[in-house]
Design brief:
Elements lengths: L3 H39 L14 H13 L4 H27 L2 H27 L2 H24 L4 E2 L4 E2 L4
Antiparallel strand pairs: 1-2
Length: 171
């Protein structure tokens, strides 16, 4: 026989993990915002570096990304590293949402992951082409990810019925 309290305990634990990891990702996004604004204000990306300019997008973007690590621009390096950490964190959030059995959180975490990938591709595009639209699109990806993760925190908050994606009506 199945002990329903034990199953509910596991589900509640998984929701707690989802909340904590979502909170950590939001903090990392906030740090990324500050570092990204600092890069925008205080760092000049050279017009000519490996991967810059016209040519195939993916190979140029990858060359630009790799160049950023040897660029000698500490804020840029930190910005790229945080972006990579955000990618890993966003993947982890999808896994935790699936494990928690929270259908809406799975969709929102997947959309948040997509938004972070979108921001990352636009960051690589900015390094390659130096177009302001790429910087603006990075911020759009950031904003979409933040909204998704805040909604996850709201829906998976304390009082949520594990697995249902809804709040308990009992006190």
């Amino acid at each position: 026989m199945c002990d329903h309290r034990a199953v509910e305990g596991v589900a509640a634990h998984r929701l707690g993990v989802l909340r904590r990891r979502t909170s950590a990702t939001l903090v990392l996004l906030a740090v990324q915002l500050v570092v990204g604004m600092s890069v925008n204000l205080y760092v000049t990306i050279p017009a000519h570096h490996p991967g810059a300019g016209s040519g195939p997008y993916l190979s140029g973007a990858l060359a630009s990304l790799l160049w950023s690590f040897s660029s000698g621009l500490p804020l840029l390096i930190v910005h790229v590293l945080i972006g990579l950490l955000l990618l890993l964190s966003a993947i982890e959030l999808v896994v935790h949402a699936v494990r928690a059995g929270h259908r809406v959180a799975v969709w929102l975490a997947s959309l948040g992951l997509t938004a972070i990938i979108f921001a990352g591709f636009n960051g690589a595009s900015f390094l390659k082409y130096s177009l302001a639209i790429s910087s603006m699109l990075m911020s759009v990806g950031f904003a979409v990810a933040v909204v998704c993760y805040v909604v996850i925190l709201t829906l998976a908050g304390p009082g949520t019925v594990p697995g249902s994606g809804s709040r308990s009506t009992s006190a």
